[in-house]
Amino acid sequence: MMALQFLPAPHIPRAFETLFERATTDATRRLVDYISRQWVHGGSFEPSDWSVFRQDVRTNNDLEGYHNRLNGKAGSGVGFYRLVPHLRQESEMVRLLVGGSNLHRITTTRSAKVQKFLVSLWDKYEAREFSEFLAKGGQAYGVMLD
Predict the structure, then answer these.
(1) How far is it, in rounded angstroms, from Cα 140 to Cα 34?
(2) Domain boundaries in the chain?
């Protein structure tokens, strides 16, 4: 079940049904029933909302870095009228960086390893090596990859 989000969204319901049929204990049946209602068959979300098939690994580090930089310049808890000049400076800097194509993401070694691991899994999936994809898919974020 931990690999479902790495499947293409249209393939998730069928893969989930296979897992659903294998639920043998009462606790497992309750879990898959909840996931079915809330995540797979449109209770709160559709698979297209949470499928990350062929998407780059994303973290909130960029946003946290931006907030830390802004807090460093303007101070935390600063009033609106003191914040506006700092936001204007930031917008000017972004305009210059975008105009000069000077933007890049800083990726940690761990994120790069996870991304490489996921790309190899997606390649296996597209090569129809399903059992290896499912066996290793749930490990993408759960263990340190070497």
Answers:
(1) 23
(2) 4-53+108-137, 61-99
